[in-house]
Structure prediction request, 153 residues.
Amino acid sequence: MYNLDSILTNFNNPTLIGQGFEAFVYQIGPNKLVKLYKPSTHSDFQVLSKAEKQSIDFRLNQLEFKLKSFPKNLPSNVITPQSLFYTNDTKDFIGYTMPFVKNAKILYTYKGRKYKKDNKITLISILKTLRAIHKTLKAIHKEQVVVGDFNAM
Prediction:
C-alpha cells in the first residue's frame, strides 16, 4: 500500500479541493486534477474488518480494469479520466488524472431562490441546462455507458 504524503511529492503544490469516503481530489495544475483513492491501510478504514479492507483492495483492482477500458467516443462535454496514476515503487493503481473544469456550477445550487435571484438565473436558463444534460446522457447511454451517480464535484 502507499503513503499519501509521499505520493503528493510528485506534484508541485497540490491543493486539496475535495474528499469523500473513498478518495481525495487534488488540483495539480491550472487545468488538471488527480483523484487519489485511499488504500485499505488508510486511517479512515482502521475500524473496518479484514474482509472489508480486502474488499477495498479488490474494488481498486476492478476500478483500474474499468478505467483502462473507459469509452473514448463520448461527447466532448463529458469529463473523462486522462491517465491512470500508479505508485512509483510497487506500480499499484491509486488514481487517475482528469481535466479541471473552472467556474463549474454545482447543479443543486440552482434550487436556492436567493442564488437564482443573485445570479439572475431564469427558469429558461435552468431548462436549457437540464436539456443539455439530457442530451449528453442520451449520447452516453447510446455508447452503452451507465452513469452511476452525479456527484457535487
